Amino acid sequence: MRARLSHGFFRRHPGQWLLALVGIAAGMAVVTGVALLRGALVDSLDAAADELAGRDSIVVRPLGESISPERFAELARLPGAPDWVPVVRIPVRVGDVQLEVIGLDGFSAVRDVTADSALAGDADRLEWTGDGPPPAAIGRETAALLGVEPGETLTLEGPNGPADLALVGTRGAGLDRRLVMDIAVAQHAFDLPTAISELLAPGSAAAWIERNLPADLQARTLDQQRASARELTAGLRANLTAMSLLALATGLFVVYSVLSFLMVQRRRSFGVLRAIGLTPGDLARMLAQEGLVLGALGTLAGLVVGTLLADLLLALIADPVRSIYGQLALARTAPSLGLYGTLFGLGVLAATAVTLPVVREALRVPPGRLVRAAEAPAPDRVGWALAGLPVALGLAWLALDPGLIAALGGLFLVLAGLATLIPRTGFGLLAVLARLAGGGLTGRAIRLLGGSRRRLAPALSALSLALALAMGMGMMILGFRASVDDWVQRLLQADLYVSATERRLTVDEVDRLAALDAVAAISTVSVQRLADQTRLTAYRLPDAAWSGFEWLAGDPERVRAGFVAGRGVAVSEPLARARGLAPGDLLELPLAGGPRRFEVLGVFRDYSSDAGFVAIDADQLTGPDAREVDSVGLYATPGGDRAALEADLRAAFGAAGELQWIGPAEIRDQSLSVFDRTFRISWAMAVLVGGIALVALVSALLAHGFERAREYATLRALGLSPAALFRLVVAQTLALTLAAALLAVPIAVVVHYALALFIQPRAFGWSVPAGLPPLGPVVVVVPLALLLGALAGLIPAARIGRRAPVSALRAG
Amino acid sequence: MADPSPVLGLRGLVRRYGEGPRAVRVLDGVDLDVRPGETVAIMGASGCGKSTLLHLAAGMDRPDAGEVRIAGVEVHGRPEPARTRERARRVGLVFQDFNLIESLTARENVELAVWLSGAAVAADRIDALAGELGIGELLERRPDQLSGGQQQRVAIARALIHGPAVLLADEPTGSLDRVAGEQVLDVLFDAARARDCALVLVTHSDQAAARCDRVLALRDGRLVPA
Ligand SMILES: Nc1ncnc2c1ncn2[C@@H]1O[C@H](COP(=O)(O)OP(=O)(O)OP(=O)(O)O)[C@@H](O)[C@H]1O
Ligand SMILES: [Mg+2]
Fold first, then answer.
1. CB A471 within 8 Å of CB A777
2. Which terminus of chain B is more exposed, N or C, with fewer CB under 10 A?
3. Residue A577 to residue A760: CA distance in whole angstroms
4. Is this complex scored with an ipTM above 0.90?
5. Are A644 and A542 in contact (CB under 8 A)?
6. Cβ–Cβ contacts within 10 Å for residue A380, how many?
7. Angstrom distance (rounded) from CA A152 to CA A163
8. Is the CB of B92 under 6 A from ligand 1?
9. Which one, of A92, A94, A107, lies nearest residue A181 by Cα?
10. Contacts of A809 in chain B (CB under 8 A)
11. What crossing angle do the helices spanning A337-363 and A280-325 adopt, rounded to 10°?
12. Are the C-beta atoms of residues B110 and B158 closer than 8 Å to each other?
């Protein structure tokens, strides 16, 4: 019988239930999409590692460039050396899709290293007789991603030009975005005759490697390698999760606002039911069941849509992840029952939690007094204390706990506190709007809204928060982009940057650059990775370059003096944050000549790497290639310009292209385009949240319109014409939208600062300067909301206008 | 004395529900003239079409055939806005379940009718009428703070404030107990008579009907003297 009551109500208001379903489904779709995406970002490495070699296999990599054939021969000749399997990894692309070609030596050797790889069975088919294009093994998922079939020939763009490969199907799973070839064939096909990227050895060789490996090579087990790779993208994944939770929260606002409207419509029947003997327990159970069914159905829909969404998101992010973190993602997301189970639980739990306040209100409906369908007098005075408490708790949590979870939790608490203030402020705003609109129809329409505060309050809060989250995310992205732009422009003090293709610049070349007529001064940068994976950047900087640093901690003059004197190093903000470093701390670096300790002199802003790096004066480094550099910044003589520099460069080095150079403007453009590609996914999230917010808006306004059917019918009966009613309804929805949107703006600013000052730093390690928030999202979202608000008013208005007032009156 | 033109004139009203062979003719040729100030009771079994008849008379619904004139103005064939305008100006409506706007105070509910009719009504007229109806002290309350009888008096004030030619009341005491019902009828009749406003009262109560100048019954879709 309970089910029948629910069902009957459901049948009468299918549209509103559907909107609540959409709310849950949309929120869960984003959460699901991101959860799957996270998996695809880290699982690829696991799968590929499993396919190529056992998990305890050891990978030996050079700290610098690739391993030369001579070096390899030397290593193989050492007494007791294991059977090395040389591997070449070649970054290639097909159109927009980034792939990797893995060249392995002699599959028989691989078979010794690997346990039981399906790939090993394909060895014979990868031999190349020299006729036709060289063969390469491709997995099913990758072939599907590229839209090719085994047997076809595929052209790949390699670092030294294109190569045609004959595709051979492999059953080997886990080779997403990777093609496997024989190493000699791969080196030949891609014109990299001597390249060896790494050496594989069986786990049993660990002891030997520990004792005998030269210092410029580094050995790690595949497991270690995977762990550090996971760490690389941890910030990105955490950030995505945070965004997806905001999307879920927005979806839940939709559910809440729809449910509370439905609640108002059902008060009367709850009163009747209670009067004829339904116990509060029965009523609570009935509503809880509805919540469960709603949550379950919505979550199921969310899982399905999210699975589709995941692959779209993956397409957006696979490319930047490859170029920024050097990692290949899976070709396709790989859902698992376990993950679905967890997400399902989350969705149902969240939906049920949202129905709780509604259940509580239902239990307060007194039995009887049926004709008084109206609300109890509104408890207007939500004290400041009630709002202040969650805000204070949230801020305290933020301040006391430096974790990302605390940042998110704190943000939610602060928003919850603000949400309690929204109705009061919102209705104040409506009163002002009504006064501005005057005594005509519009003013009256808005004043009519003021009478039903209690019904509208939850919707108004939900709408404002949903709109605020969407705008806040957009503000954060725009603000962040502007900061990156400022940072790049400030950093690039030189007039031209020179580097070589595929190698470093020699001491001789650096000296010749410094000696050019048009050059007043040079800066040099060389980057290396230390044994503990720390990135170390050695600088030699002229005076002019120092203003390129923005110091977040440490006195600029002192930092500079100490740096040049070799007393200490500077660290980038993400590194400082990750390791808890502040000026005055000591940092030990495993340099080529042995470990050395340096004082941390200062912390500077940097957005180039979320792992962070250490900046050191170039003179502190010793060793054979310590004076080779990655790039040289040229500072023109006073009165000189870029053209003069370029003319000098061409004269001294020829136009042949041994060296390449690029100006600050181009670097800035490139950096911003990298940023844009990286943040495409954040935009996607902001747009998704915005979409859900607009669904919330439309659903709340439709619910409002339908809820008012009887009131509108009475007005019609009393003599309000259909056209006037139409205007009245639209004026009401527009006023509500305007109030919600206006309130959303300051909250969006709060969200913006929370994301920029707490969540970004805690996810990525970098902060965004607290400037004025960009208003672009407001300019987009508010008019869009008003447009949709008007449309959402038109639907019920048209329906009510068309309907004879009689039927709405009868329907009661 | 010449018969003054009726404030409400119904001629051959037909109203069907449903389509084709399953259509039901709820009204099948209703004729009625209500003179200014006249009170008419309409009785009949539940479901016989009394409310349907009132809705047609108020111009809230369109007849399938027949004519409706309010204060001499033909309404039945006119477009919705015109019908609405006539209703707002010349008709007052009282419902069984009050239908006050929940979010407005009693005073605002009454003002609503002033605004909709476009009539020029001085503010103190509302207080005067409310006093007459016995709700002078209650004007600032909202419907949920009023008893049923009080709510219905507010509804009556709303129906009368703009000086309509005819008041259409559909079982105005149907939701009230006997005492409250009688009190409401008292003020309804008194206020209508005081304004020379005609009243069409749909009721199940013989006593209520007995207060009217004429009592009619709706039977088989037609009005016949009771
Ligand atoms: N929209 C509709 N569609 C179909 N039939 C309807 C519709 N509205 C009313 N009816 C039918 O028309 C008949 C008359 O209804 P109406 O409400 O006018 O009766 P009534 O005389 O006012 O009854 P009561 O005394 O119970 O209020 C009823 O049988 C009802 O079922
Ligand atoms: Mg009736």
1. yes
2. N
3. 12
4. no
5. no
6. 11
7. 14
8. no
9. A107
10. 95, 99
11. 140
12. yes
User: Looking at the complex, does the CB of residue B81 fall below 8 Å from at least one CB of chain A?
Assistant: yes
A190-225 pLDDT tens trace: 888 777 888 888 878 888 888 887 777 778 777 777
Task: Report strand pairing: A594-604 vs A586-591.
Answer: antiparallel
Question: Min CA distance, A785 vs chain B (Å)?
Answer: 26
Degrees (nearest 5) of the Cα angle A14, A15, A18? Answer: 85
How far, in Å, CA of B21 to CA of A370, rounded? 39
Residues in chain B: 226
Q: Judge contact between A195 and A209, C-beta under 8 A.
A: no
CA pair distance B56, B29, nearest whole angstrom: 13
| Dihedral sign, Cα of residue A57, residue A191, residue A101, residue A197 | positive
The domain ranges of chain A are: 1-45+237-373, 49-231, 382-490+669-812, 493-662
Summary mean pLDDT of chain A: 81
As given in the structure block, the two tokens for residue A123 are 């060895």
- Side-chain-side CA neighbours of A51 within 13 Å: the count stands at 25
Nearest CA in chain A to B176: A371
Return the DSSP state at A534.
-
| d(C-alpha A23, C-alpha A25), whole Å | 6
What predicted TM-score, i.e. pTM, was given to this entire model? 0.73
Q: Tell me the average pLDDT across A29-52.
A: 76
The interaxial angle of helices A337-363 and A234-275, nearest 10 deg, is 40
pLDDT classification of B126: cutoffs 50, 70, 90: very high
Q: What is the CATH number of domain B35-61+84-225?
A: 3.40.50.300
Q: Say if CB A706 and CB A14 are below 8 A apart.
A: no
**Domain segments of chain B: what residues?**
35-61+84-225
Q: Which residue has the higher pLDDT, A45 or A422?
A: A422
CA distance B113 to chain A (A): 7
pLDDT in tens, B208-222: 999 999 999 999 999
Which of the residue ranges A216-220, A300-304, A602-606 would you say has the lowest mean pLDDT?
Answer: A216-220
Q: Tell how far the Cα of B189 is from the centroid of ligand 1, in angstroms.
A: 26
pLDDT tens for each residue of A728-746: 888 888 998 999 999 999 9
Other CB atoms within 10 Å distance of the CB of residue A611: 20
- How far is residue A424's CA from residue A421's CA, in Å, rounded to a whole number? 6
Does pLDDT of A376 surpass 50?
Answer: no
Q: Is the CB of B49 under 6 A from ligand 1?
A: yes
Ligand that lies nearest to the alpha carbon of residue B17, given by its number in the listed order: 1
pLDDT of residue A274: 67
pLDDT number for residue A380: 43
Q: What is the pLDDT of residues A476-490, one digit of tens each?
A: 889 888 988 999 999
Question: Which of A431-435, A652-656, B79-83, B163-167 holds the top average pLDDT?
Answer: B163-167
Contacts with A805 from chain B: Cβ below 8 Å:
60
**Which residues 449-508 on chain A approach chain B with CB closer than 8 angstroms?**
449-452
> The tokens of A628 are what?
């080779």
Task: With beta carbons under 8 A apart, name residues in chain A contacting B95.
Answer: 809
Among B16, B26, B62, B171, which residue has the most ligand 1 atoms within 8 Å of its CB, making it the best to mutate?
B26
Name residues whose C-beta falls within 8 Å of residue A298's C-beta, 6 or more positions apart in sequence.
Answer: A20, A21, A22, A23, A24, A25, A28, A255, A347, A351
Distance CA B69, CA B10 (A): 6
**Ligand 1 atom closest to Cα of B50?**
21
Judge whether B99 is closer than 8 Å to chain A, CB to CB.
yes
Using pLDDT thresholds of 50, 70 and 90, give the confidence band for residue A329.
confident
Highest mean pLDDT among A314-318, A522-526, A699-703, A763-767: A522-526
Structure tokens, B29 = 């040729």
| Structure tokens belonging to residue B207 | 């006593």
Ligand 1 contact via B221 beta carbon (within 6 Å): no
pLDDT band at A755 (very low <50, low <70, confident <90, very high): confident
